[in-house]
Design a protein that fits this description.
The structure holds 2 protein chains of 2 kinds. By secondary structure, chain A is mostly helical. In chain A, about 60% of the residues lie in helices and about 0% in strands. Chain B is mostly helical. The two termini of chain B are about 20 Å apart. Classes of the chains: A mainly alpha, B mainly alpha.
């Protein structure tokens, strides 16, 4: 820090130097915690990958339901055919 | 399926049997070992990124985002390439497998593109003091992801007919045109985006940094291959199921009007 700077040193030199007020930085850029950003990025990565896996899982579930419907239709048709064969001489 | 078997036995030819016996993608014997290898690669990658690779002198710990931001971008390229290959092949000779590959590739491009477009701004917040700028690389990457979002939305809502598939395939081919533009945008138009591994910057200065990045590429390549493979298989099975449903309707077995 330059000598004569308007911003006081954050480390008190004597007990009389202790802060008695907090001042906001004027016109400075907002600062972000690197740790928070890193963890956020890593969490987003896995959230997106897992969301896609869940999407694939849901697609498989839909297919399974359709497959069961189709099997039901085929079983019904087969049963009707057997019944018709039993009735005919 | 007992129903299908008895019908075939009665002499009526349906496509349910042949569809069920159709050639499938490579066996599970390759897939499951690849899952294990990918898991191991990610464990080693996490170890190297968080415990071995040194903290960067100017940016601090946030620089470690780089080790999965860049491999995610690479995985996005892989997905987009799969979409291009499947789409181009479909336009030459339409098959369910080619369409399924294109669709899976587009979804991979969207998923990994979303990772790139989220992790990049989180890094930028610290390194640039802002989450987003209209830098050439950022803008072209966003454009590319939007193209693949358009593809995915088109496939989700425009039906699954031959015309829709062909239109999507054309979009899949044209969408790939933006990929080299993303890559070369940094060199042609400048901007703020770092050029650490493009030969213009100083590169990674520590061997553990290089190793962490290399492991990132390996892990994300395997993850992309796994996910595209799994998605392709689901999509292919869905196409076959739809044909079986249509056959059931054509034969009068199912009272619905369409599958």
């Amino acid at each position: 820090m330059k000598e004569g700077s308007e911003i006081p040193s954050p480390v008190p030199q004597t007990t009389g130097d202790r802060a008695t007020s907090f001042q906001a930085v004027q016109g400075g850029q907002e600062h972000y915690s690197g740790e928070t950003l890193l963890v956020s990025a890593y969490a987003v990565l896995w959230a997106l990958v897992l969301a896609w896996v869940a999407f694939i899982w849901r697609k498989q579930g839909e297919m399974n339901a359709r497959l069961l419907d189709l099997q039901r239709v085929l079983d019904k048709a087969a049963a009707e055919k057997v019944a018709a064969k039993d009735v005919s001489p | 399926m007992s129903g299908a078997a008895s019908l075939n036995g009665a002499g009526r030819r349906t496509s349910v049997g042949p569809v069920a016996r159709a050639r499938t993608l490579p066996a599970d014997g390759v897939f499951y070992p690849l899952v294990m290898l990918t898991a191991v690669a990610f464990v080693v990658e996490i170890f190297f990124v968080f415990l071995r690779a040194p903290v960067e002198v100017r940016m601090g710990i946030v620089q470690k985002i780089f080790y999965f931001h860049v491999p995610s971008a690479y995985a996005m390229y892989l997905g987009a390439t799969a979409c291009f290959a499947g789409s181009a092949a479909y336009l030459v000779r339409p098959t369910d497998a080619r369409d399924a590959l294109a669709r899976a590739g587009a979804e991979a491009a969207v998923a990994f593109g979303a990772i790139v477009l989220t992790t990049g701004p989180l890094w930028g917040a610290k390194a640039w003091g802002t989450f987003w700028t209209w830098d050439p690389r950022l803008t072209t990457a966003l454009l590319s992801v939007l193209i693949y979002v358009a593809y995915v939305v088109l496939r989700a809502f425009a039906g699954d007919g031959s015309a829709e598939r062909k239109f999507s395939a054309a979009l899949g081919v044209l969408g790939a045109a933006n990929l080299p533009i993303i890559h070369f945008s940094v060199q042609k138009w400048g901007g703020q985006h770092p050029t650490v591994i493009t030969g213009k910057g100083g590169g990674l200065q520590h061997p553990d940094m290089k190793l962490a990045l290399a492991l990132g590429f390996l892990a994300f390549t395997m993850l992309a291959v796994l996910l595209v493979w799994a998605r392709t298989r689901v999509e292919l099975a869905r196409s076959r199921l739809r044909r079986a449903e249509e056959d059931a309707i054509d034969l009068g077995l199912d009272t619905r009007t369409e599958a």
